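Give me C-alpha cells for this 101-residue protein.
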Amino acid sequence: MLATPIVLLLSCLVAVYARPQGPGDATIVRYVSENTGIDGYNFEYETSDGVIRQEKGVLQNAGTDNEIMVVTGSVTWTDNEGTKHTINFTADQDGFKPVIA
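Here you go.
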C-alpha cells in the first residue's frame, strides 16, 4: 500500500523542518491531534521557535484496489536570517508534491 511510504516520508520532513534552528531546545506550545482510525487523521502543532506544522490524511476508495490515504499539509519556519518559509504539500496516488510558497 502506498500510504506507508508516504507517512514515512512525511515523518522525515517533520524531523528535518521541526528541529531547533538556534541555541536551546524548542518546546511545543500548541498541539492538536485527531486520529479517526483507518479513515484518516489530522494534526497540527506549533513550537516555541516558530515552526508551524499541519497535516491531514483522508482515506479514499476504501476497500478497493485503489485505496489510498491522501495527505495534505504544510510546514512553516523562519530561518536564521529571519526569512519565513512555507512548504505546502499533497501526497496521493501521483506521489509527493511539495509547493514552496
